[in-house]
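Handout, section 4.2: multi-component inputs.
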Amino acid sequence: MANENKMSKLIRLRESKITCTGGVVFIGDGNTGKTHTALNLASFKKKKIKLVSIDELKKSINLEFNYFIFHSNIEEYQVTTSSQIFIMPGQKGRAEIGQGLAFEDAVDLYFSVSAINEVLTLVLTFDLTDIRTFQELEYWLERAMFRDIIKEYTSIVILGTHFDRKEEIVVTDEQIENAKVFVKNFILNKKGIDVALNNIYSVKVSNISDEGLDDLKQAIYTSFVTAFSIQQLISENNNLKYL
Ligand SMILES: Nc1nc2c(ncn2[C@@H]2O[C@H](COP(=O)(O)OP(=O)(O)OP(=O)(O)O)[C@@H](O)[C@H]2O)c(=O)[nH]1
Ligand SMILES: [Mg+2]
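Output:
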């Protein structure tokens, strides 16, 4: 299958080392914290990027790129995932001339590039204190499907930001759980792709306290392990070794 070929270019197994890479795409309304979350992920354990004031960090008017590397062990294998993070502009449709790029402009321009094509994790981002941004996820999911960003191997993360503003949180856990089922059915009905509920995660983060960032990293890592069927790869390799 063409798909498998493309995916196989993104993973290497040498002796007991497995290294893989793939795309993680953030979409969602403007001002929901996509840029801050990606910056925090990328600087994890190094210098933390703290909230930048609105004056310093304007709304994104282009595709932003970042990455992080995660090491772990599965059996005697050392697994390294290098996640390439792409943050889409939160502005809907197309931008006016001279106004940078909106979502559709960025997809046109960048999604012909291979690494971004293999989206292993799609992060639907909303602000826990703003119900409208949560409701708008349906719009973003629809655009992601229309633009072919979701593949058979893509996992979904429903990401609520502003977790530090506990008193102002309006989106409930029940609504988030319902959203998982909604996302699953939406993708199945519109695209015929059956994403397992296990591969639809919900994560809450604060970009102020860093609460939840570990959970987000773990969800992304797990979606890579799933997309590449790393567990299966390991048992096949073990079988070969002991033949
Ligand atoms: N309190 C709080 N503020 C946050 C958090 N995450 C982001 N913010 C603030 O929310 C605003 C928007 O954050 P961005 O990361 O620029 O949002 P974005 O989704 O990239 O927005 P666009 O680039 O316009 O699409 C900024 O003023 C941030 O300081 C959070 O977890 N808690
Ligand atoms: Mg941004």
